[in-house]
Amino acid sequence: MAYLDFISLIHKSTPRDYLARVNDPEFPKAKAARLAKQWDKDYWDGDRRTGYGGMKYDGRWRKVADAMAKHYQLKAGEKVLDVGCGKGFLMYDLMESVPGLEVTGLDVSGYAKKNAKPEIQSRIHEGHAKKLPFQDREFDLVISINTLHNLECFDLDPALREIERVGRKNKYLCVESWRNEEEKANLLYWQFTCESFYTPQGWEWWFQKTGYSGDYSFIYFE
Length: 222
Known about the structure:
CATH class: Alpha Beta
Low-confidence stretches: none
CATH topology: Rossmann fold
C-alpha cells in the first residue's frame, strides 16, 4: 500500500467559489444535493450548480491514464476495472494509452452508462460498488476515483472488501478528505453527494479494517 497522487493536477485546475455554491438562491445546497443524488441528468449534464454542468470528453484524463499505465506497467491483454466509472472517460483514455488493454467499468448511474463515450459504453455495467458482479481476482488493476466517499459506512465496508476481492494484483482509489477545519468546511460547502467525511487517518482506519491492500490518495478542498 502506498500513497500515490495521480489526481491533484486535474482537481486543482478547477476554480471553486465555496460560498457561492452554498448560498445560491435558485439551488440552495439541500435542493442541489437532492437533485445530484439521483445520479441523473441534473448531476451529469444539468446546471453547474447541481453537478458537473455538462460532462463532455475533453481528454483531460489522458495524463492520468498515462501515469497509471506507466506506474503499474500495464500491458495489452491485462484487465482493468473502474469502480464508479461515470461516463467512462478514464476507461477510454486507458485503452488509448495501452492498446489491447481490457477495461471494464461499473457505475450506479443508468444515465451515465446511457450517455457514456460510445466506444466503451458496452463495457460499463450498471451496479453498486458494494456487490461487484465479477470473479475473485479477476482484474490486474482495480481503480476507483472520487466514488467511495459517496457511500454510507455500511456500504463503504463491503465496497472496499469487494475491490480487494476482485483485484489480483494492483488497486488504487482516490477519495475526498480533510486535514483541518478550513478544508472540512470547504468540503461541506462544495460537495453534493459525499456521505463519508473522514480525515486521512480515518480513511486509513477503514483500509485496515476491511483489508484493503491497494494504493490510495486524497483530494483536499484548500
